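Morning. Coffee machine broken again, so started the prediction first thing and wrote up yesterday's gels while waiting. Chain of 392 residues, entered below exactly as on the submission form.
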Amino acid sequence: MNEIQLKYGCNPNQKPSRIYMEDGSDLPVTVLNGKPGYINFLDAFNGWQLVKELKEATGLPAATSFKHVSPAGAAVGLPLDETLAKIYWVDDLGELSPLASAYARARGADRMSSFGDFIALSDVCDVDTAKLIKREVSDGVIAPGYEPEALEILKAKKNGNYNVIQIDPSYVPAELETKQVYGISFEQGRNELDINADLLSNIVTKNKEIPEEAIIDMKIALITLKYTQSNSVCYVKGGQAIGIGAGQQSRIHCTRLAGTKADNWFLRQAPQVLSLPFLDKIGRADRDNAIDNYIGEDYEDVLADGAWERIFKEKPPVFTREEKKAWLSQMTDVTLGSDAFFPFSDNIERANRSGVKYIAQPGGSVRDDLVIECADKYNMAMAFTGIRLFHH
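Came back before lunch.
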């Protein structure tokens, strides 16, 4: 099949719509269930490229959670400790497969943004991963294959309408890619940049020590940024993105947005949050919303007279600003990636507040010396890649 007719494009008024191969060859994908739409396929194809490259760069199964053509989360399949399993709401599932762990991480880092995501998996979807996907709100999944039982689990989701796409892992796209804007055709070479250790060898700070774990996190950050709408910044820790700032016009706004998400990820692990006495009837999505408000500036709304009774068994104490600051001071060894150079040192100052120790960025700003000086002030190790990673 060399084309798939779609219900409509980005919006219902944009008709007709289809995906197809201009050269008449067969599409490298098969729809096994559901009827994926235009945006679903955009998320699926961008997400597949991301996890394919993560697997190649790290040797570990990878997963990503995509929303509106940018990742909300991306991770490799490292085991979950007890705390992470609890904040990702998977502590009742027992030990997960590496692929399921990757998706739990990708979905769980920013659960607010991941709600209703499109999933990409680097490996054949196993039963563990399918069971995890089944219980979360998402639009669909793309993977190189599915175990028979896993496929049946997924096909039963959304009353049988869940989107399941299989992609040919051997598919190699053309070297030139084209798109149209306002009836005008654009053409460029595909971004085939290999994110490897050599790209991270130019360490420009006084601190030259970057452990292997941080090198892996740098690769995850840069590969994630490669498929994130620019401007973009990504915080990574322990094999997963913990904060992604996408599509901002100002780089400092990216750094702040991603840093706030990273802070929220860590705040969810605080004892005050882990011990919240939720009513048994409160589902995961509503718990996520309540937690987001509880650790944010809207905690008064959650704890207002009468409001807390709809969520909690008993009124929890306020998580004070001082307590949050003290907890966040324990977040360390975070890696930060940027798709373009930092024009001012304010980005480094903000990164330091979220425990950043390692940075990968292209370099090339007229103020590189001030950015390096700021990184040195906090004993950070920073690599200049020399390569920009804009994605539009």
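The radius of gyration is 21 Å. Going to sketch it on the whiteboard this afternoon.
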